[in-house]
Structure formats: C-alpha cells, structure tokens
Fold these 3 entries.
Entry 1:
Amino acid sequence: MFFKKLAEAAAISFGGQTKSGSRIRFGALAAISGGISSYYFLSSPNLIYLLSFNFIGYFAFFSALNPDKWIEFKLQDKVQASHNSQLFRFSFDPNVKLGLDVASCIITRAPNGQNAEGKTKYVIRPYTPISDPEAKGYFDLLIKVYPEGKMSQHFASLKPGDVVEVKGPIEKLRYSPNMKKHIGMIAGGTGITPMLQIIDAILKNPDDHTQVSLLYANVSPDDILLKKKLDVLSASNPNLKIFYTVDNPTKDWLGGKGYISKDMAVKGLPGPSDDTLILVCGPPGMMNHISSDKAKDRSQGELTGILKELGYTEDMVYKF
C-alpha cells in the first residue's frame, strides 16, 4: 500500500528497504581476479544471488549485480504509473546495494520460444533503474508497455513473486559532481529515466552545484512520466529548470506544444560552451530530429539535427 500510494500521489521516492526474513548463507569461493576479488553465492528460499566482494586496500564493496552472469531478481510489487506505463520494484538481499553507477543501466532478458535446435531464445532489453543507486535491497524500473513490445508485455505479465533475469551494470556516461557547469537534457517518453538518475545524483549532493535544464517531450499531458516528482524537485531546487512540451495538448495545457524546436532549445538549454553538456534520450524519431541516433555499432556517431544547427559540437553532446 505504501508503494501504491506514493506512485499515485507523487512517485517522489519509493523509499525504505525490502523486508526479508531469510538469512544469508555464504557458499563456495567462485573466482579470484583483478587483485583480490572473490565471488560468493548467497541463497534464499526463492532466489540465488551472485555477489561480488572486491578488496582494494581495506575497502570492501558488495554488489547484487554481475556484468558477466544473468541473476534472477524477484518482483516485489508493481503499480500503474500512467495509462500505458508501470512501475516495478524488484527485491534482493536488504544488506546489499545493486551496484549501479551514475549513469548506467541494466540488461534484462526473457524467454521467447525456441530456435531450430530446441534451445531457448531470449528477448533482451536495457533499462535504467530510477531508484537511488545507493539503496539497499531493491531497485525500481519504469517501463512503458507497448502493445507489440515483447519485453514490455513480458514485464506487464509478471506477478509479485515472479523473477526476471538481469545482467549489469552497463556503464553509459560516467557522471562526476561538477563535471560541467551546466547540463542540458532533452528527453522523450521513457528517455527520462537516465536523466532522472543524474538529476537525483546532483540534487542529493550539497557539494554539486551543477545547473540542470530539462526539455521533456511527450505525446500528451497524460503521457508525462513522473511529472509530480519532477515538479516537486524543480520547485524545491533552484538549480533545476524543466520545460514540458506535448504533441496533443489539452485545452488547459500551459506548457509547450509540438516537437522540441530550435526556439525551445535556445530558450531552455545552456548555449554551446566548453562548460556545457547536452544529454539526449528518446525514441528514434526524436533522436534524429535533435541530434541523430547512435551509430550502428552503438558509438556516439555523428552529430546532426537541431543541436548541430545551433552550434553544439560532438564533444558537447551525449546520446543515451
């Protein structure tokens, strides 16, 4: 109920830690690599977790994720976030962090039939958790459910207690406090998730003075994900400015109308500068309009679109 009320009211933070009555039992040593690095299996009645225990001097770090192995995480709860999006909370040992850096994502997979040899085929998709990377025992995913989306339909079919296979983290942009004086963000739909990860990291750090400007595009006002949370963050943090635009505005809509334009970018983003970074994440059509999508090899590729026309250079723009 706590989870559902927060999602309905503001989706500001799911807070807290998952409850677990199971005790951790350490198993066999699996590997030693990269200096002194040991892997231990932890078992519970329903799940098996692989935790990484890395020593650097006297520093020890536990992580529920493994970049080289698929790990099962149990669905604790899910709620409707919008008419076509859902919030999912997955749980694991409450004494352990997920092991996610800002900004990075995870890879998920689900069975999708069999190949000619009778082996299981999988559909694989990346997602960016929106929960605090420092949180222990849980992570949250915000997923738009598409009618023909194989992975999103799989997530929508999950019930509490079901598991999903996860690998990671997959590092995207390595964010560090005050790396730029001003960060501009352009997001479309669920492209808000990596932006929110960075926004949260900036706002919770009193020593990070980065100015953030977000342009957030959606189809309609009802499609704006986490708007209440974003509005609260913007109202309480003067270094965060947000401008919304929608393709199909309602009669009482007071924000922008239509696709993100040059004029919106000029008014809502920091100008081209060595101390400016523009982050872009959204559907392919928006990406091509704003900056071009990534190259086929998933490198950043060439910069085109309105950002190129406005004088930004490739080293000023990062595409998620």
Entry 2:
Amino acid sequence: MAHYAFDHGITHFDLANNYGPSYGSAEETFGFIMKKSFKPYRDELFVSTKAGYDMWPGPYGNWGSRKSLMASLDQSLVRMGLDYVDVFYSHRYDPETPLEETMQALVDIVRQGKALYVGLSRYPADKAEEAYRYLEARDVHCLLYQGRYNLFDRAPEEEGILGQARAYGVGFIAFSPLAQGLLTSRYLQGVPEDSRMAQGRFLKREVLTEAVLEKIKALDRVAAERGQTLAEMSLAWVLKDELVTSVIIGASSVAQLEDNLKALRKVDFSREELERIEAICHTPDGGQ
C-alpha cells in the first residue's frame, strides 16, 4: 500500500508514537519500508509523527512535558530509522504541564534539527492561539493543526479552529474524513460482519441510528448524482475549502486507496449541491 501511495503522488505519511496494534509498531513498520525501498526518496517524503498520548508506563510516557516529548521523538526516530521528521506534533493539549514548557520543547526540537516543522493536534482554540503566538515569537512557525473533520463532525467550524488557523497562517489537516467508515457505502445495507462496527473497534453499533442511516443514504444519492461514491464525495467535500491543506485517510487495502484517490477528480461543488448536503447533515430525520 505504501508503494502504491507513493507511486500515485502521496508523499505525506502520518504517524504517531502509539499508532499500531502495539505501541510503536506503525513506526517500526514504516522504518522497515523506509530501509527496504524508500530511503533513496527520503527528500521527496514528508513524514510526521506525534507524542502526547499514552506510550509507556511512568510519569513521562504520556502528556506533553519537555522530557516526554523529547524522549518520545528520539524513540520514534530510532524506530523509523530517520535522522529527522518533517513535522513533529504535540498530539494533545496537556492541562498538567505549562503550555510554555510544551511549546519550548517544540522550539528546541526544531533548533536541534530533529524536526523541520512543528504542529498541534486536537488543541482547544484558546490554547492553540496561545501556542501559535509563543512559537511565532521564537521564529518557529506552527505549520499544521490536525483535527477531526468530516461531514458529520463540524467541530473545527463550530469552534473557530479553521478560521483561527487561517488567521495565523497555519494549515489544517483533517483526520477521520470518512467518519471511521460511516461516510462510505459500507453500512448502507446494514453492518457487515468484518466491519469495525461489528467487531466493536473504535465504532460502536449505537452510532448507526436510523436517523444517521437515513442521512448516509441521502448523501449517497447526492454523490451518485455527482458521479461519485459516497466516500469520494465525502473526501472531496473536506478538500473543497482552501483552508484544508490535506486529509489523512486510513485505507486498509490498495483497492480502498485507489477509490479514495478518485475523489481528486472532482472537488468542486455547486451551490445547490452544498445546500442539499447541509440540509441533510443538519436535519435530524436525515433530510431528502
């Protein structure tokens, strides 16, 4: 999948210290691919990783202290076989550590050459603004803000995160653009036995209410009229706004990745299409 992605123009690989079935395993897998085939193309790759969620036992295996962030990044670089990452994120705001300590760690990580840029993930708007100002004052611009954003989850709009990012010249990168599979054709006819929802992994059955299913079906009709699958339209909708730098997709097969890439063929929407989509998403009974 990684090779297919790179061969089709995807150069950004988004990781975190605790991604994978076991913590660190996603970075280790990427490190294997890096050593085996990607090493000659390192300067064409844009690799990011994060720290801030639970990683190892003890007081420094979590949150955003200076020791935690620096130790975690050192471990991540070893697992990936890299000298530096392109972006290092503070994965979440730490209420137990002064914001200045977390941000200064990011500043020093850039000055040490272990990351070219820094980013924030899932920070509340008020703390993100403080962080942007702290970093800018020390000549380390925050490159990206990463947050959950899709047709069903509008928090970045409602909380002002998107507008704030634009005001500070920060790119926004969306994760979960397909709402963990809800915004695909996967659940149109029920819950497949091999799905995340059936297995109770990350997506619970109670999320798929009758009202939500009606919304999914209504959105699927709009997508069909556009000549797209629901997944293609959902990705295109996120990418339509110039405020959104990119989306992070969690494809589990080459076929899924191939389908996701088709979204790029049509990212423009008419006013009527946007109005229909908004009516569907904001109507409790699913709209028409």
Entry 3:
Amino acid sequence: MTGEARTGTLHDPRLVARLVEGAQRGDALAMDELLGILAPYVGRICGPVALQDGADAAQEALIAVFSRIRQLKEPAALFGWVRAIAVREALKLAGQRRRQPTVPMEWEEPPVSGDLQLASDIADALHRLAPEHRAVLMLRHVEGLSEQEVSALLEIPVGTVRSRLFRARRSFRSAWG
C-alpha cells in the first residue's frame, strides 16, 4: 500500500486545501465534505489502538480536529496533523480502559467469510498488547511510518519506539502462537 493510500491523500490536494480553508472560515458544507474524507482515515487509526473504544476515540479525534482546524497553518499537512490527534485520542481512551475487561473488537468492514478466523485471531492477539504497543505497531506497519516518524508523532525517543516495537512484535508472536 502506498503512502498516499494509507493517508487518504488520494483525494485531490487542491480540493482538500479548499475544504480546509473553507472549514477554517466556518463553512458548514466544507466541514461536512472534509468530515467525509477524514472519518474513515481516523477510524482506521483509532480502531487498532483503542480496540472496542475505537469509535469513541475516532469521534473524540474528529471533534478535536474540527475544534482546532483554524490552528492548522498548512492544508498540505492535514493528514499528518490529523494522524497525530487520532493517535493521542486513541491512546488516551485505551489507557483509561487498560485495566477493564475487554470485549471483542468491532470491525469497520466485516472480514470476508474465509478470513473470519484470521480476523478473530488477530483481534485476540491485539487485545493482549498494551495500547502503547498497539500504537507503535499500527503506525509502523499499517501506516508505514519510519521509526523516526513514529518517534516524532508520539513525542518519545527513537530508542523507546524501537524497544516498544521489539516488545510488541514479541508479544504479538507469543499471543498468536
């Protein structure tokens, strides 16, 4: 998957820039169209990190995005800015639930029937990881960010990213097997 497909920038950058500028001016139609672009992207980020609270995290992230949209200086930076907000909200909600019992993860799109067991196994393995580990795995392997980019996004040292990735991969393998 290319970086463009992951970030949602397959949308025309000029259109996105116009929508951001409209949203910054308070244009409800621009906000609505921008919401249609951002909601699936934010959901893909929040779901694997916050698990059963993924929808709530996505909602909180989108509220934060639109309440702070005027702070975005460069429309071209939209997806990176939104990603940072989404990860923070997902980690916040996942941390709040950390010690509470979990329920099975809801999938945004139901897996193909042949993949139901695989999807269930992946969800089970993810549930066993700490939220911080799910976040680095998702950012590194789903979003395709480098360790340096993950470090900057989560505001932690690169060495911490590497150790969390190591532990997350080891824990995932252990839970998988």
